[in-house]
UniProtKB/TrEMBL annotation:
One of its GO terms (biological process) is phospholipid biosynthetic process. It is a multi-pass membrane protein. Mg(2+) 1 binds at D65, D68, D86. Gene3D superfamilies: 1.20.120.1760. Its EC number is 2.7.8.-. Its cofactor is Mg(2+). Homodimer. This is Phosphatidylinositol phosphate synthase. It comes from Cellulomonas carbonis T26. Belongs to the CDP-alcohol phosphatidyltransferase class-I family. Contains a di-nuclear catalytic Mg(2+) center. It is an enzyme of class 2 (transferase).
Length: 208
């Protein structure tokens, strides 16, 4: 099933990537444009309560993550800089989505719990990739956890969209709570994994 899905996505993305490359568009430009689109849509549409249009526009721009990577591979421009830029700008997009929901829920006045959970999901979600990056910077691995970026984005955008179509608003609050909890669990999991690696690398096993 996943192989078939990748094949379908490739048939759509590859021709677009080739057309942009022939036009002289650099993969980094697509990365930046996609991030700007996500940030603007999240900070303008979501706070105004456009819960159907917002997720749709955000999803369209978020798909540039597939496009810029394909362009880099097909043009031979895969580089550490491109990977760094993509990963860094992803944090802007993720933060803007949850920040937009914080503003929207807080402005309603009757869902302060939802606003607090959206803020918690924003903060904890930002620690998840930091924990992994910091571990890798120390020569260790921390690629475990139950709250990967793609899963978090899919859950929050889908629940927002469904609420925009008329589902009970409490659905979004519940999803935000689950995302905050999942992010917290992931951070703890990564800390535990890094601690085990650090202790194993210490000659005396970390004993005082």
């Amino acid at each position: 099933m996943m192989r078939r899905l990748r094949s379908v996505v490739a048939r759509v993305v590859d021709p677009v990537a080739d057309a942009l490359l022939r036009s002289g568009v650099h993969p980094d430009a697509v990365t930046v444009a996609g991030t700007v689109g996500v940030v603007v849509a999240a900070l303008v549409l979501l706070p105004l309560g456009h819960l159907v249009a917002g997720p749709l526009v955000i999803t369209v721009f978020a798909l540039t993550d597939l496009l810029d990577g394909t362009m880099a591979r097909r043009s031979g421009r895969v580089s550490p800089w491109g990977a760094f830029l993509d990963s860094t700008l992803d944090r802007f997009g993720d933060g803007a989505i949850f920040a937009g929901l914080v503003v929207y829920l807080a402005s309603r006045g009757d869902d302060q719990v939802g606003a607090a959970l959206a803020l918690a999901a924003l903060v904890l979600g930002s620690i998840v990739p930091y924990a992994r990056a910091r571990a890798e910077g120390l020569g260790m691995r921390a690629d475990v956890g139950i709250a990967e970026r793609a899963d978090r984005l899919l859950a929050v955008l889908l629940s927002t969209f469904v609420v925009g179509l008329g589902a009970p608003a409490v659905l979004l609050t519940v999803v935000l709570g689950l995302l905050a909890l999942a992010s917290l669990v992931t951070v703890v999991q990564r800390m535990a994994v890094v601690r085990r690696q650090a202790l194993a690398a210490t000659p005396d096993g970390g004993a005082a």
